[in-house]
Write a structure and sequence with these properties.
Elements (H helix, E strand, L loop, with lengths): L3 E2 L22 E2 L3 H30 L13 H7 L3 H6 L6
Length: 97
Protein backbone atom coordinates (compact mmCIF):
# COMPACT_ATOMS: atom_id res chain seq x y z
CA UNK A 1 0.00 0.00 0.00
CA UNK A 2 1.57 3.23 -1.08
CA UNK A 3 0.57 6.84 -1.17
CA UNK A 4 0.21 6.78 -4.91
CA UNK A 5 -0.97 3.53 -6.46
CA UNK A 6 -1.53 2.94 -10.15
CA UNK A 7 -4.28 0.70 -11.42
CA UNK A 8 -3.28 -1.85 -13.98
CA UNK A 9 -5.20 -1.68 -17.25
CA UNK A 10 -7.53 -4.61 -17.65
CA UNK A 11 -6.34 -6.78 -20.51
CA UNK A 12 -9.22 -9.23 -20.22
CA UNK A 13 -11.45 -7.31 -22.63
CA UNK A 14 -10.97 -8.42 -26.16
CA UNK A 15 -10.85 -6.16 -29.15
CA UNK A 16 -13.00 -8.62 -31.11
CA UNK A 17 -16.32 -7.26 -29.85
CA UNK A 18 -15.51 -3.74 -31.16
CA UNK A 19 -15.45 -1.92 -27.80
CA UNK A 20 -12.43 -0.07 -26.60
CA UNK A 21 -11.04 -1.03 -23.20
CA UNK A 22 -11.69 1.50 -20.44
CA UNK A 23 -8.78 3.75 -19.71
CA UNK A 24 -7.47 3.33 -16.17
CA UNK A 25 -7.14 6.33 -13.87
CA UNK A 26 -3.65 7.74 -13.83
CA UNK A 27 -3.28 7.65 -10.04
CA UNK A 28 -5.23 7.61 -6.79
CA UNK A 29 -4.40 8.73 -3.28
CA UNK A 30 -4.91 6.32 -0.42
CA UNK A 31 -4.89 7.42 3.22
CA UNK A 32 -5.23 5.37 6.36
CA UNK A 33 -7.15 6.48 9.43
CA UNK A 34 -4.10 8.15 11.00
CA UNK A 35 -3.35 10.02 7.78
CA UNK A 36 -6.96 11.13 7.44
CA UNK A 37 -7.13 12.35 11.05
CA UNK A 38 -3.79 14.13 10.66
CA UNK A 39 -5.02 15.86 7.50
CA UNK A 40 -8.22 16.96 9.28
CA UNK A 41 -6.20 18.29 12.24
CA UNK A 42 -3.82 20.25 10.01
CA UNK A 43 -6.71 21.76 8.03
CA UNK A 44 -8.50 22.72 11.26
CA UNK A 45 -5.38 24.47 12.57
CA UNK A 46 -4.90 26.35 9.29
CA UNK A 47 -8.54 27.46 9.14
CA UNK A 48 -8.49 28.50 12.82
CA UNK A 49 -5.31 30.53 12.28
CA UNK A 50 -6.86 32.24 9.26
CA UNK A 51 -9.97 32.99 11.35
CA UNK A 52 -7.85 34.59 14.10
CA UNK A 53 -5.90 36.65 11.55
CA UNK A 54 -9.17 37.75 9.94
CA UNK A 55 -10.61 38.89 13.27
CA UNK A 56 -7.41 40.80 14.07
CA UNK A 57 -7.29 42.45 10.64
CA UNK A 58 -10.97 43.36 10.80
CA UNK A 59 -10.59 44.96 14.23
CA UNK A 60 -7.52 46.87 13.05
CA UNK A 61 -9.23 48.18 9.92
CA UNK A 62 -12.62 49.01 11.44
CA UNK A 63 -11.45 50.36 14.80
CA UNK A 64 -7.94 51.82 14.48
CA UNK A 65 -6.24 52.88 17.71
CA UNK A 66 -6.16 56.59 18.38
CA UNK A 67 -2.64 57.94 18.55
CA UNK A 68 -1.91 60.02 21.59
CA UNK A 69 -0.38 63.38 20.82
CA UNK A 70 2.01 65.12 23.17
CA UNK A 71 1.01 68.71 23.83
CA UNK A 72 3.63 70.92 25.40
CA UNK A 73 3.69 74.57 26.29
CA UNK A 74 7.21 75.03 24.95
CA UNK A 75 7.63 76.17 21.38
CA UNK A 76 9.82 74.15 18.99
CA UNK A 77 12.53 76.80 19.29
CA UNK A 78 12.59 76.46 23.10
CA UNK A 79 12.69 72.65 22.84
CA UNK A 80 15.68 72.73 20.52
CA UNK A 81 17.48 75.21 22.76
CA UNK A 82 16.94 73.05 25.85
CA UNK A 83 17.72 69.75 24.03
CA UNK A 84 14.86 68.05 25.87
CA UNK A 85 12.76 65.54 23.99
CA UNK A 86 9.03 66.37 23.65
CA UNK A 87 7.92 63.51 25.89
CA UNK A 88 9.91 64.88 28.82
CA UNK A 89 8.54 68.40 28.27
CA UNK A 90 4.99 67.11 28.50
CA UNK A 91 5.67 65.43 31.86
CA UNK A 92 7.34 68.46 33.45
CA UNK A 93 5.27 70.91 35.45
CA UNK A 94 4.48 74.25 33.93
CA UNK A 95 6.07 77.24 35.60
CA UNK A 96 3.61 79.39 37.51
CA UNK A 97 3.18 82.76 36.15
Amino acid sequence: MGLFARKAASSSTSSRDGTKPKKAKSFRIELGWRGLLSLILVCFCLFFWMFVLGIWAGQTILFPQKKETVHSSASPRERSAQKIPPARIATQKRPAG
